[in-house]
Design brief:
single chain; 147 residues; six-stranded mixed sheet; 1 helix
Length: 147
């Protein structure tokens, strides 16, 4: 097995549960894979768009699977809107909100509708339970203007 700590977590968590002890998401976070790259294909950084617009997600080094589907080397996309990853607890499942959009269907693009003005977009990859990998896999932040 390529990730012995994951195997240990898989074996350890059921023992904890049988003992009446619960494990936090931090205890069982999946390890990210070296060389994985998460990026926004479009719109380009600095683009002006008309709402609604399409955001295309890019992922290299891993695959995409829907939330709830546990497959090795896969995750699903979350888009942060006008939010910094530092402001979120990336050891826990990402909360769905207007600023954290979930694409748990395995989507690789989505329509966003935002009010006119300047906005930032950034991707975070989550596992089947919406928990970011360890370390978190995040894209570069882009800035767009909605007219």
């Amino acid at each position: 097995m390529k990730n012995p700590s994951r195997l240990a977590a898989c074996l350890f968590v059921p023992v904890l549960l049988m003992a009446g002890v619960t494990a936090s998401a931090e205890d069982i976070r999946k390890q990210g894979y070296e060389g994985t790259r998460l990026y926004i294909i479009s719109p380009a950084d600095g683009a002006t768009v008309k709402s609604p617009f399409t955001v295309r997600f890019g992922l290299a080094g891993m695959g995409v699977a829907p939330a709830g589907v546990a497959r090795e080397r896969t995750g699903h996309h979350h888009v942060l809107i006008d939010t910094d990853p530092k402001d979120l607890d990336l050891t826990q499942p990402l909360p769905a909100s207007e600023k954290v959009r979930h694409f748990g269907g395995g989507q690789t693009e989505a329509q966003l509708e935002l009010p006119p003005g300047r906005h930032t977009l950034q991707l975070v990859l989550g596992d089947e339970n919406h928990v970011p990998f360890d370390p978190p896999l995040v894209s570069e932040k882009i800035t767009i203007r909605v007219r």
